[in-house]
Amino acid sequence: MSEEEGRVFREAWIAGVRAHYPGEPKPGYVTPWEDTPEWERRAAAAVHRQVRDFIEVSDGMTSKLTRAQKGRFVALCWIAQIYRHIESPKPSYVADWDDLPEWQQETDSDIFERIEKEA
Q: In 3-state terms, what secondary structure has residue 14?
């Protein structure tokens, strides 16, 4: 696990939440990296790597994807990490893209685009 990859993912998540969440976000949504649980740090790093690898094997053609397609990829990778780390997750933790609130869809799309800019 690269701590830096996880940190970038988490910072992009927090920035997205602050930009798109209606009202005041729950404290857990904006917990700084240093206070993020270890399992969540590992999950963030794993999803960052999956996005980066996807961009690389696509030879940068992910730039042609829509924001929704980019966000769906992040969301799906995150769901796999939830199942990996939580034995019986709440349904809202593993909700499909169409069932996510708009703020979360926008945040996931922002995360992909942040990683894409660095790749």
A: helix
Helix 38-57 to helix 102-118 angle (10° resolution) is 60
Q: Is residue 42 within 8 Å of 1, Cβ to Cβ?
A: yes
**Which tokens hold the place of 45?**
């790093």
Assigned token pair, 90: 């709440």
- Residues 17, 25: contact at Cβ < 8 Å? yes
Domain count, the chain: 1
One-character DSSP codes across 75-111: HHHHHHHHHHH-SS--GGGG--GGGS-HHHHHHHHHH
Domain range for residue 90?
A: 3-118
Instruction: Give yes or no for a contact between 81 and 43, defined as CB atoms under 8 angstroms apart.
Output: yes
Instruction: State pLDDT tens for residues 38-75.
Output: 999 999 999 999 999 999 999 999 999 999 999 999 99
pTM of the shown model:
0.95
